[in-house]
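Lecture notes, part 5. Sequence design as translation. It can be helpful to think of inverse folding as translation between two languages: the language of shapes and the language of residues. The source text, in structure tokens, appears below.
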């Protein structure tokens, strides 16, 4: 048998062609062949969670690539071994490339609107979302058939609706390159519609044709169509046409269609004729699993004690769990040690505290006081640096914590375009990942709401 290191490097090169970059660097990093005994390869992995994940999701692939290199190999065993013992993989070319290309949150396919970060590989299944997950899997097998068409998924914010419906889109896009997929939020759809209307007949013709060409149309957050009669009417016609041609349509919303205010009856009845499932809040075991999965992705492993503590203190949604974990990781890295439970408690109380009902104006006031700038300047056109950042933070918080639509945010903050709100949101979201000061500012602001 060849040298273990060489063997694993070759296998990794092969695996790198099959597994998406993000997954590859997440799961395969820090693995190494410890030994080989009677055709069984013992693969050292950094923790239990990676072990489960490799075993459940990638085992066949790993075994196949090893067997391709050496047909005496009969099996692979995954062994948790501490990083000190596990030789950190000596970066063959393919791994190096992967670490240089981190998970790009902003990567959105321009044709499909899909973000490749949302996949089934990094989707955790628990009893809270099992029904929705199973339905989604069935759709993948029976795209466009009546029973699951339309597929309507609803649930509170941060519970994984967007992740799940995008994962369906990504899977279809990957498996069936000849099928045209579009992911769009209802807000963007509405803006697109209004723009086309204002540009005259030709633009409308193009608009109508565009949305009728898809084999799979995924529309996120359709609760934002509430009160938008014309957009709803247009959607209704597109829906009928796609449906009659056995095209798959997928919707998400924060509530059951029957409870979306000012939604046309005929749309409601169309939705009710398909498959409606909900996602609930994750229960304790799922929260633990989610925290594990997220720490693997962030490559930082807080002690079990902390994971369990977090899982029992936070009951809300996945986004909050994720946010809290990121905050803890960020501070641990700054302090170069794990946080104590006492240090974590105040972070949790910020999240757990129920949000007050605040108006946009009150939120602007809180943010501008915090940054010590004139409240009015947030609404004005000025692009002075000391105002720009607080304004972006305001937009981010309005969207992330108060679930206000981009057009409304733009309009309320001095009549700006929805794209400005969208851009600000993405900018802060990205910057928070690398800027611990910003992250702390946001945490402190949240504590004031
Ligand atoms: P929603 O659309 O319901 O508001 P998202 O899909 O945006 O929620 O999810 C919020 C965050 O939580 C995202 O970062 C998403 O990747 C993560 N998330 C949600 N559910 C899961 C899950 N089951 N497994 C892994 N990550 C999840
Ligand atoms: Mg969403």
């Amino acid at each position: 048998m060849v040298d273990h290191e060489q063997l694993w490097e070759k296998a990794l090169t092969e695996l790198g062609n099959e597994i998406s970059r993000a997954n590859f660097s997440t799961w395969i990093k820090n693995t190494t062949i410890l030994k080989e005994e009677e055709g069984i390869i013992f693969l050292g992995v950094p923790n239990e969670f990676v072990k489960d994940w490799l075993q459940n999701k990638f085992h066949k692939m790993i075994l196949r690539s090893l067997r391709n290199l050496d047909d005496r190999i009969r099996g692979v065993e995954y062994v948790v071994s501490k990083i000190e013992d596990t030789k950190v993989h000596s970066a063959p070319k393919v791994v190096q490339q992967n670490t240089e290309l981190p998970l790009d949150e902003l990567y959105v396919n321009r044709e499909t609107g899909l973000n490749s970060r949302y996949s089934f590989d990094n989707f955790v299944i628990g009893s809270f979302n099992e029904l929705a997950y199973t339905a989604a899997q069935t759709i993948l097998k029976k795209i466009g058939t009546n029973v699951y068409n339309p597929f309507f998924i609803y649930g509170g914010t941060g519970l994984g609706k967007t992740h799940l419906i995008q994962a369906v889109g990504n899977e279809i896009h990957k498996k069936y390159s000849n099928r045209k997929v579009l992911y769009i939020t209802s807000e963007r759809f509405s803006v697109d519609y209004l723009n086309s209307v204002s540009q005259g007949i030709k633009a409308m013709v193009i608009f109508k044709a565009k949305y009728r060409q898809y084999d799979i149309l995924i529309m996120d957050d359709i609760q934002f169509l509430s009160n938008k009669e014309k957009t709803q009417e247009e959607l209704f016609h597109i829906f009928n046409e796609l449906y009659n041609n056995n095209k798959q349509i997928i919707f998400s919303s924060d509530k059951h269609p029957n409870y979306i205010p000012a939604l046309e009856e005929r749309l409601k009845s169309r939705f009710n004729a398909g498959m409606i499932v909900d996602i609930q809040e994750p229960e304790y075991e799922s929260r633990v699993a989610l925290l594990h999965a997220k720490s693997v992705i962030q490559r930082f492993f807080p002690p079990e004690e902390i994971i369990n503590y977090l899982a029992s203190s936070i009951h809300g949604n996945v986004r909050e769990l994720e946010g809290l974990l990121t905050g803890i990781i960020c501070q641990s890295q700054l302090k170069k040690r794990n946080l104590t439970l006492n240090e974590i408690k105040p972070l949790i109380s910020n999240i757990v505290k129920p949000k007050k009902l605040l108006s946009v104006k009150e939120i602007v006031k809180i943010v501008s006081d915090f940054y010590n700038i004139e409240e009015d300047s947030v609404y004005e056109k000025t692009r002075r640096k000391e105002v720009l950042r607080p304004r972006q933070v305001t937009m981010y918080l309005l969207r992330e914590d108060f679930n206000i639509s981009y057009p409304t945010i733009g309009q309320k903050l001095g009549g700006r375009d929805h794209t400005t709100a969208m851009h600000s949101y993405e900018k802060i979201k990205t910057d928070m990942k690398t800027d611990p000061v910003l992250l702390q500012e946001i945490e402190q602001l949240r504590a004031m709401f």
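The translated text above is only one of many valid answers, since several sequences can fold into similar shapes. The mean pLDDT is 86.
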